[in-house]
UniProtKB/TrEMBL annotation:
<dbReference type="GO" id="GO:0005829">
    <property type="term" value="C:cytosol"/>
</dbReference>
<feature type="domain" description="Lactate/malate dehydrogenase C-terminal">
    <location>
        <begin position="148"/>
        <end position="208"/>
    </location>
</feature>
<dbReference type="Pfam" id="PF02866">
    <property type="entry name" value="Ldh_1_C"/>
</dbReference>
<dbReference type="InterPro" id="IPR015955">
    <property type="entry name" value="Lactate_DH/Glyco_Ohase_4_C"/>
</dbReference>
<dbReference type="GO" id="GO:0006108">
    <property type="term" value="P:malate metabolic process"/>
</dbReference>
<comment type="similarity">
    <text>Belongs to the LDH/MDH superfamily. MDH type 1 family.</text>
</comment>
<dbReference type="InterPro" id="IPR001236">
    <property type="entry name" value="Lactate/malate_DH_N"/>
</dbReference>
<dbReference type="InterPro" id="IPR010097">
    <property type="entry name" value="Malate_DH_type1"/>
</dbReference>
<dbReference type="InterPro" id="IPR036291">
    <property type="entry name" value="NAD(P)-bd_dom_sf"/>
</dbReference>
<keyword id="KW-0560">Oxidoreductase</keyword>
<dbReference type="GO" id="GO:0030060">
    <property type="term" value="F:L-malate dehydrogenase (NAD+) activity"/>
</dbReference>
<dbReference type="GO" id="GO:0006099">
    <property type="term" value="P:tricarboxylic acid cycle"/>
</dbReference>
<keyword id="KW-0816">Tricarboxylic acid cycle</keyword>
<dbReference type="InterPro" id="IPR022383">
    <property type="entry name" value="Lactate/malate_DH_C"/>
</dbReference>
<protein>
    <recommendedName>
        <fullName>Malate dehydrogenase</fullName>
        <ecNumber>1.1.1.37</ecNumber>
    </recommendedName>
</protein>
<dbReference type="Pfam" id="PF00056">
    <property type="entry name" value="Ldh_1_N"/>
</dbReference>
<dbReference type="InterPro" id="IPR001252">
    <property type="entry name" value="Malate_DH_AS"/>
</dbReference>
Length: 235
């Protein structure tokens, strides 16, 4: 029996993630938690004919406790997304506190769970989660993850424009350095199969695509749907 919990289930990433987990045959029980709208999201997803039993919780009446008790996998997409004009420091000031408080609940109610953090900036929210778990005496580095599948998906897709690769999902491109424009590095030289990228295209691939997406898109974040779709498949 596998129980998964989504903390931040009503948001732009949380809702499609919850849908995919409800449909995932590996999940037997799914708990949704958020500060608003969780009952409605839960009701909608309960109509999906899958094995997973679903329940939804709000902060009142010990909702976080009920969502986390007995949980094997916790995914945290909670927090605000990055908007035009925002730096990652701005994002950190809001999301750090949200992640901290949720991880305190994990430390108390499901200390053995695998914890996957999507909330940005991931490079900073994961260390905060680690410190909270350490303070509670339940930290296990093998059970705490920052989800950066998005960067791999981007690398595979963007390279297709220049490499001639017909199916971007067939390319495997390692991406290291975490989820930050200052540190992230796609290792095109380690791609499998090997890629032939024109030298004058490297700068555009490495530095420009992310900012273009952040500043030009006011619609639903379909990149995140692909990201969360790949996560349960790879578990």
């Amino acid at each position: 029996m596998v129980k998964a919990a989504v903390l931040g289930a009503s948001g732009g990433i949380g809702q499609p993630l919850s849908l995919l987990l409800k449909a995932c045959p590996l999940v037997d029980e799914l708990a949704l938690y958020d500060v608003v709208n969780t009952p409605g999201v839960t009701a909608d997803l309960s109509h999906i004919s899958s094995v997973a039993k679903i329940s939804g919780y709000l902060p009142k009446e010990d909702g976080l406790k009920h969502a986390l008790t007995g949980t094997d996998v916790v995914v945290i997409p909670a927090g605000i997304p990055r908007k035009p004009g925002m730096t990652r420091d701005d994002l950190f000031k809001v999301n750090a506190g949200i992640v901290r408080d949720l991880v305190k609940g994990i430390a108390e109610f499901s200390p053995k769970a695998f914890v996957l953090i999507i909330s940005n900036p991931v490079n900073s929210t994961v260390p905060i989660a680690a410190e909270v778990l350490k303070a509670a005496g339940v930290f296990d580095p093998k059970r705490l993850f920052g989800v950066t599948t998005l960067d791999v998906v981007r690398a595979e897709t963007f390279v297709q424009e220049y490499s001639g690769q017909k199916d971007p999902s067939k390319a495997q491109i390692p991406v290291v350095g975490g989820h930050s424009g200052e540190t992230i590095v796609p290792l095109f030289s380690k791609a499998s199969p090997s890629l032939n990228i024109p030298a004058d295209k490297y700068d555009a691939l490495v530095n420009r695509k992310s900012q273009h997406i952040v500043f030009s898109s006011n619609c639903f974040d379909f990149r995140s749907v692909d990201m969360v779709c790949r996560c349960p498949i790879r578990w």
